[in-house]
Design a protein that fits this description.
alpha/beta; Aminopeptidase; Alpha-Beta Plaits; 2 domains; four-stranded antiparallel beta sheet; about 20% strand; globular; Aminobenzoyl-glu_utiliz_pB; para-aminobenzoyl-glutamate hydrolase activity
Length: about 475
C-alpha cells in the first residue's frame, strides 16, 4: 500500500492534478462551511421521523436539495417511490454515496438528555438515519464542487436508499442493477465512536408468519374454536427448542405483531414476525426451511393454517481492507469530535442513564485503531458491498456508550452533538472520495482486492428471491 499523505499536504500532492487547481479548493474547509446546512437538513428529517418506504417528506427534501446543486435526479427507482439516484459529472470514476433516512417505530424522544417521550410521534430516529441522509447529502455536494473546481473527470452519485430498518431498500436497488456501473461506494453510519474497521455483518432473512383459525366464544363454545394464537405460540416453542441445535453464530428473534384482542374470544388470526441471522448467507438459507417446518407443524398441531411472507433479507458486508485502512488513516488525521461547554453538560446528564460502565464523554475525541471484527447486526449495505467496493466509516454522533435503537440515540440525533458527527462523517468521506478520484493506484489495488475477496466463482444472489419491495411493511 502507498504511504498515507498527511491531509495538510494532500492538497499539494494529489497525483494528476495541477497544483493551482488543488490549492483553489479545500474540501475539508468546504464541509465545515456547509455545517449549518447539514444541521438544518438533519433537523428536518429528525422532525419528519418517517418509517420505511413511507419517507415521502424526507426523500423529497433530499431530492430538492441535491437538484438545486445541479444534480440530475431520477426518482422512484427499483419500484420504490421514495428511492432515488442523483448524479453530476462526466467521465472518470463513478463514486456513489449512500443516504438513508428512515426512522424506527415505537420509540420517541425529544432532544433532551433525560427520558422525554413525545406523545405526538409514533416513531423516532433511534438509529440516526436523519444524520446519515444529511451527512451524505453534504458529501455529494462538496465532492461535486471539488470535481468542478479542479476539473477532475468523474461522476458523483447520491443514492437515496429507503427502509434500511427491516425493509432492505438497498437490496432491491442492488438487484435492479443500480450499482453495476459504480466504481466505488462511500458509506457511513452514526455511532458512539469514530472508527473505520473492516467489519463484517451478519446475513439475515425475515418473514411474517400469519396463522388463521376459527373464532368462537372461549368459555361457552371452546370446542368450536381453533386458536390462531395457539399456532403462533406453538411455532415459537418449537423454534426456541431448535436454538440448541444451531451453530454459534446463529441469531433468531421474533415478535408477536398481532395476537388476541380479548381473552374470551378464540382468535381467528395471529401473526409473528421472525428474523434469522448468521455470518454465512448459505447458513441462513439452510436454517430457513427449519423455521418454515416449525410453522407448518404448529399449524397442523393446532388445527390452524399458516402462510408467510418474506419481508427482507441482507447479505453480509464485505469490507475491503485497503479502503478501510485508508479511511482509518483519514480519521486519524482529522481527529475526533470536541464538545462545547453546553454540549458537555448535556452529555454528562445523558450519561447518567447509560450506567457506570459507559466510557467517558471524552471518548468522542478519539479515533479507534484499525481492526478486523464481526458486527452482529445486519444491514442492506451488505448487498451493495457485494456488488461494488464499498468503504464505510462510523463517527461519534451519540454520547459515548449510547446504544443504537435507544431513546438516547434519538435525543442526540436531534441536536448539535449529532449534527457534529454527521459533518465529521461527511469530511472523512469527502477526503476519501478525493483520494479515489485522484489516485489510480489506490483504485486498482482496491478493485483487485475486492475481486479476490469475492472469489472467481462468485455470483450475486439476494436473500429475497424475486419478491417486490414490501412497501406496506410498516403500515
Amino acid at each position: 500500500m502507498k504511504p498515507f499523505i498527511p491531509l495538510a499536504l494532500a492538497a499539494l500532492c494529489l497525483p494528476g492534478l495541477p497544483a493551482a487547481a488543488q490549492e483553489a479548493f479545500d474540501p475539508a474547509a468546504a464541509v465545515d462551511a456547509e455545517f449549518d446546512h447539514t444541521a438544518r437538513i438533519a433537523q428536518q428529517i429528525w422532525d419528519f421521523a418517517e418509517l420505511g418506504y413511507l419517507e415521502q417528506s424526507s426523500s423529497s427534501l433530499l431530492q430538492s436539495e441535491i437538484e438545486a446543486e445541479g444534480f440530475t435526479v431520477k426518482a422512484g427507482v427499483a419500484d420504490i417511490p421514495t428511492a432515488f439516484i442523483a448524479e453530476w459529472g462526466h467521465g472518470g470514476p463513478v463514486i456513489g454515496v449512500l443516504a438513508e433516512f428512515d426512522a424506527l417505530p415505537g420509540i420517541t424522544q425529544s432532544a433532551e438528555p433525560t427520558r422525554d417521550p413525545l406523545a405526538s410521534k409514533h416513531a423516532g430516529h433511534a438509529c440516526g438515519h436523519n444524520l446519515f441522509g444529511a451527512g451524505s447529502l453534504t458529501t455529494a455536494i462538496v465532492l461535486k464542487r471539488w470535481l468542478e473546481a479542479t476539473g477532475t473527470p468523474g461522476r458523483i452519485r447520491l443514492y437515496g436508499t429507503p427502509a434500511e430498518e427491516g425493509g432492505s431498500g438497498k437490496v432491491y436497488m442492488t438487484r435492479a442493477g443500480l450499482f453495476d456501473d459504480a466504481d466505488f461506494v462511500l458509506d457511513w453510519h452514526p455511532g458512539d465512536r469514530n472508527a473505520a474497521p473492516s467489519s463484517s455483518s451478519l446475513a439475515n432473512r425475515s418473514a411474517k408468519f400469519r396463522f388463521h383459525g376459527i373464532s368462537s366464544h372461549a368459555s361457552s363454545a371452546p370446542e368450536n374454536g381453533r386458536s390462531a394464537l395457539d399456532g403462533v405460540e406453538a411455532m415459537n416453542m418449537m423454534v426456541n427448542m431448535m436454538r440448541e441445535h444451531t451453530s454459534m453464530d446463529t441469531r433468531i428473534h421474533y415478535a408477536i405483531t398481532d395476537g388476541a384482542s380479548a381473552p374470551n374470544v378464540v382468535p381467528d388470526f395471529a401473526e409473528v414476525f421472525y428474523y434469522v441471522r448468521h455470518s454465512d448467507p448459505d447458513e441462513v438459507r439452510a436454517l430457513w426451511p427449519r423455521i418454515e417446518g416449525a410453522a407448518k407443524g404448529a399449524a397442523m398441531g393446532t388445527g390452524t393454517t399458516v402462510e408467510w411472507e418474506i419481508i427482507h433479507g441482507n447479505n453480509p458486508t464485505r469490507p475491503v481492507p485497503t479502503l478501510q485502512r485508508r479511511m482509518t488513516q483519514i480519521l486519524e488525521q482529522i481527529g475526533g469530535i470536541s464538545y462545547s461547554a453546553e454540549e458537555q453538560a448535556w452529555a454528562r446528564t445523558l450519561r447518567e442513564s447509560l450506567g457506570d460502565d459507559a466510557p467517558p464523554i471524552t471518548a468522542a475525541e478519539t479515533v479507534a485503531p484499525y481492526a478486523v471484527l464481526t458486527n452482529y447486526g445486519s444491514t442492506d449495505v451488505g448487498d451493495v458491498s457485494s456488488a461494488v467496493p464499498t468503504v464505510s466509516v462510523r463517527t461519534a454522533t451519540w454520547v459515548p456508550g449510547t446504544s443504537a435503537h435507544s431513546w438516547q440515540a434519538v435525543a442526540a440525533s436531534g441536536m448539535s452533538i449529532g449534527f457534529k458527527g454527521a459533518s465529521h462523517a461527511a469530511k472523512a468521506m469527502v477526503l476519501m472520495g478525493v483520494e479515489l478520484y485522484s489516485d489510480a493506484e489506490l483504485r486498482e489495488q482496491a478493485k483487485a482486492e475486492f475481486t479476490e475477496l469475492l472469489g472467481p466463482d462468485y455470483q450475486y444472489e439476494s436473500l429475497l428471491g424475486d419478491r417486490k419491495p414490501p412497501l406496506d411493511y410498516r403500515q
